[in-house]
Specification:
The chain is α/β, with parallel strands linked by helices. The protein is built from 14 helices and 21 strands.
């Protein structure tokens, strides 16, 4: 393939940027195509970064509200949402500097802005120009989808792509969807002063997490003042002079809900708009994702894909990990397979809810024997000092090793990495039980849970007899 690029990357999110920068710096001829007018992807502009910045501002206001619990006479100020969102965009702009197109051009990457469309398995067209590639990476991400609710298309609803442009705090916010995006933003707006109502069609919020911990979190959110309606469907919505009216159905009971703003966070779909993947000999599976093998190759072995457009985890850290797999296969030609056995999953509520490895449902479905060890956060001294009494660690133990963990606790997203490493490296549970954890820390919950697992055998009648025998035998 003369005059062909070594690698054409379609999508300027994390997966595409990591792959393009490494390949470019190592001397490959790389073209990077981004459909929007800036690099960084959904995470930087509409996802992880703005949401976590907003959550932090909300947490600071909540700390003032909670002051009397800790002996402090504090008073929460009214929220200036325009100022809060201005800081959100300042953070985005600061990080955006790392994704400056000129930086990548200095790496030798040919950065193009425009919609890429396949012409055949080895050619794409961008802004009317035909480009030939030896290998391709599709990293086009995902976008929010609207559920089939009557009247929704005639209502000015919000998504994660538009909510961070709001400058007036809604008095009443409705949230359709109890997944991570919906729940994180629901709590943030509630803490900023909105009256929030979450409508979830399923039996509990955060359906990918432990039902027991999701229930604990839901109860905590209700204590903060958030209304959560589970097993509730929205039959239709309509715009009224007073705001938006939702017609709800729960069991056999119908009722109306009036809100000023409506956030739709009921799912996402892989983004292949305009890409014409069929011309490349590719197709989507039943979930709307692009099928790949363990080396992240599509049906066309020279076309790779990563990130939200393939799944199975819609996370920035997953796209970055998958990029490393692709770099090994494409840049260094070293066969490497993706391994999803120890991927952390975190919802950044307060407290945070995280899990890694097998869920309890997956462990049951496997039919393999396992033990479940549960340890309450309320029994951890550091949690008590911080007034954090909602939470628990649940460990799945198989043959003396952790194969799954779920944690509801402050900073659970930080603590879960210790458990992810234990699962990834098959560290025996006894080593975690014997490991020195700093006191007092919330992370001590891992050591305490591991110790609880061994307590029954340590203090058994057999062990007591052994200790007596040793002390009779030895002076």
């Amino acid at each position: 393939m003369t005059n062909a690029q070594d690698l054409i990357v379609i999508g300027g999110g994390v997966g595409g940027l990591v792959t393009a920068s490494v390949a470019g710096q190592l001397g490959l001829k790389v073209t990077l195509v981004e459909a929007s007018d800036k690099l960084g992807g959904d995470c930087l502009h509409y996802g992880c970064i703005p949401s976590k910045t907003l959550i932090n501002s909300a947490a600071l206001r909540q700390a003032a509200i909670d002051g009397p619990r800790f002996g402090l006479a504090t008073q929460a100020a009214n929220t200036n949402l325009a100022a809060v969102m201005a800081r959100v965009h300042e953070v985005i702009e600061h990080i955006q500097a790392h994704d400056d197109p000129e930086r990548f051009r200095e790496y030798g990457v040919d950065v193009r802005f425009g919609t890429a469309a396949f012409l055949d398995p080895h050619h794409i067209e961008v802004n009317g120009e035909r480009i030939r590639g030896r290998r391709f990476l599709i990293a086009t991400g995902s976008r929010p989808i609207a559920p089939p609710i009557a009247g929704l298309d005639r209502v000015a609803y919000l998504t994660n792509e538009t909510i961070f442009d709001e400058t007036l705090l809604p008095d009443r916010l409705g949230v359709i969807g109890g997944g991570p995006i919906g729940i994180e933003l629901a709590q943030a707006f509630s803490r900023l002063g909105s009256r929030v109502n979450v409508i979830e069609a399923g039996a509990h919020i955060l359906p990918k997490d432990s039902p027991e911990l999701a229930k604990q979190l839901a109860n905590g959110l209700r204590t903060e003042g958030i209304t959560i309606d589970q097993q509730t469907s929205v039959e239709r919505v309509e715009q009224t002079p007073e705001g938006i009216k939702l017609y709800l159905l729960q069991a056999d009971t119908k009722r109306d809900l009036h809100v000023d703003k409506l956030l739709v966070a009921a799912g996402r779909q892989a983004n292949f708009a305009g890409l014409a993947i069929d011309r490349a000999g590719l197709w989507l599976d039943q979930s709307g994702a692009l099928p790949v093998d363990q080396r992240l190759r599509t049906a066309q072995k020279h076309i790779f894909a990563c990130g939200d457009c393939i799944g199975p985890y819609p996370f920035t850290h997953m796209a970055e990990y998958q990029a490393s797999v692709i770099i090994s296969n494409v840049v260094f030609r070293l066969p490497k397979r993706a391994n999803y056995r120890s991927v952390p999953w975190v919802t950044y509520t307060k407290p945070e809810l995280a899990h890694v490895g097998l869920t309890e449902a997956a462990a049951r479905a496997s039919g393999a024997r396992y033990e479940l060890v549960c340890f309450p956060l309320a029994a951890v001294d550091r949690a008590l000092t911080e007034g954090a009494d909602v939470g628990e660690l649940r460990l799945i133990i198989q043959r003396g090793r952790i194969t799954g963990a779920s944690l509801l606790a402050p900073q659970a997203g930080e603590i879960i990495h210790e458990l992810a490493l234990a699962i990834s490296e098959r560290v025996p549970l006894r080593r975690l039980a014997g490991m020195v954890h700093a006191y007092p820390t919330v992370a001590q919950i891992v050591k305490r849970a591991a110790g609880k697992h061994y307590a029954a055998s340590l203090f058994s009648d057999r062990t007591r007899m052994l200790v007596k025998w040793i002390h009779r035998l030895l002076p």
